[in-house]
Amino acid sequence: MELLTNAYSAENFRRQAHDLVDQLAGYLQSAQDQTLSTVIPYQSPDENYRYWQADFAEGSGDLNAFFNEVISRSTHLHHPRYMGHQVAPPLPVAALAGLLSGLLNNGMAVYEMGLVSNPLERIVSELLAQRIGFDPQTSSGLLTSGGTLANLTALLAARAVHAPTVWQAGSSEKLAIMVSEEAHYCVDRAARIMGLGTGGIIKIPVNDRFQMRTELLGDYFRQAQADGLRVFAVVASACSTSTGAYDTIPPIADFCEKNGLWLHVDGAHGGAVVFSEQYRHLVTGINRADSVVVDWHKMLMVPALATALVFRRNKDAFQTFHQQAQYLWADQQSTDWFNSGKRTFECTKLMMSVKIYAILKTYGEKILAENIERLHSLAQYFAGAVASAPDFTLALWPESNIVCFRYQPENDMAAVNERNSLIRQRLLAEGRFYIVQTTLNGAVYLRVSIMNPLTTTHDLDALLTEIRGMV
Ligand SMILES: *Cc1c(COP(=O)(O)O)cnc(C)c1O
Predict the structure, then answer these.
(1) Given CA atoms 212, 218, 219, 224 in this order, what sign does their dihedral have?
(2) Closest by alpha carbon to 374, among 31, 134, 89?
(3) Given this model, what pLDDT does residue 412 score?
(4) Which co-factors does it depend on (predicted)?
């Protein structure tokens, strides 16, 4: 019992927490001023496994030393030369809210276990719904664990509304969705989980800017009908992951209205632009969607995971899951917003809303716009630098904070592909920058997503210099 009493002791916690905060503040400083010179301390999976295996074999030890190893052996998202995947360097206040909610651990599924987080979830969802342009009287939203799960939840809601018998009776007809071939892989995965199979995922080709060719929707729709499929939803990407291309929503919305289909906008990454006057034009027409997904943990500076799913009609959100759970709520039919678990896949759920609300409460909504505008303007700068460099080429002018480019000092395309793969490997091994790569029309491109607003134009110039110096 003494072990437990000590482990729960408030005094021990105070000391451990102070130590950790000191350590994290020092880390943040060194990442931001780049005295920490490595962005990613890359080691192979097996090397890292062996390190931790040996550490574990030593048995219990010092907490500070453990935290220190975790910090130094991780990828440093707060380093200005982190430009890899689309995950936010979280605002420190949101991380603190994470510590707070981790300790309180109010699991949210029912109101009594989420007295604070359920109302905060409603408030931040109402804010987002309003910025999307939904009628605040009739829309609603929720938070869930990631864009992948949110897209699945949205498609389940779409099916519940358009094919309501499936939930009870299982599938009898062949259902299908339509989506651009550039959509995030999780849409494909969601469709397969729902039993739609390969045939039920109709991929619409993209144009030279990697946007859905909306003029083809009618032909693909008629072909699907001729093949005995019933299409119930179209997914628009806002933006796509590989290149950051935004599908043009109005013609997709027209098509959905004409044919009685559900329009889902996967704005996991780019939906955040609804917070910026300057960039919200990228998602013109988003207010005509039936459902929209936005990740708070991408351009909105919240620690992962924190994803919004917003419905144009509140009642649709309650169609997704109909199950009796007498021990949780007395009346399954009532549309009570305050019992989180009725509308979400999760039962116990993280108090995500507290992290989002902490940002809004501390800095106001304007910090969201400022971040989005900063990330986009850095991407525009970088695209300009690449476009004006004779030895680099740009895949396409970026709409978002994602830029695909390659080093191309020669014309032999096979050699250029090989060279760029090699560059990416060396960058990873040296660790002074973290960027990723992608393949576009069979060609290898380097890819940055600028996620850290403290990145400077100097850091972006330095990336080009670093790449040139590698050959
Ligand atoms: C990131 C992303 C997803 C997946 O979201 P997670 O939060 O990583 O699960 C889905 N769609 C798009 C367009 C994305 O950018």
Answers:
(1) positive
(2) 89
(3) 92
(4) pyridoxal 5'-phosphate
**pTM passes above 0.70:** yes
Residue 430's φ and ψ, nearest 5 degrees, are -80, -30
Last residue of a domain, one of 363, 397, 421: 363
The reported pLDDT for the residue numbered 326 is: 67
Residue 86 CB partners (closer than 8 Å, separation 6+): 241, 269, 298, 299, 402, 449, 451
Same domain, 350 and 376: no
CA 340 – ligand 1 centroid, Å: 22
Q: CA-to-CA distance for 149 and 320, rounded, in angstroms? A: 13
Instruction: Give the Cα separation of 202 and 65 in Å (integer).
Output: 52
401 and 271 fall within a common domain:
no
Q: Length of the chain in residues, anyone?
A: 471
Low-confidence ranges of the chain (pLDDT < 70): 324-326, 329-330, 332, 471
- Tell me, what's the pLDDT at 456? 98
- CA nearest to 293, candidates 311, 314, 317, 316: 311
* Residue 155 CB neighbours (<10 A): 25
Predicted local confidence at residue 324, as pLDDT: 66
pLDDT value, residue 336: 86
Residue 47 lies in a domain: no
**CA of 467 relative to ligand 1 center, distance in Å:** 28
The whole-angstrom separation of Cα 41 and Cα 432 is 9
Pocket, ligand 1, Cβ cutoff 6 A: 86, 146-148, 184, 186, 237, 241, 266, 268-269, 295, 307
Domain of 34: which CATH number? 3.90.1150.170
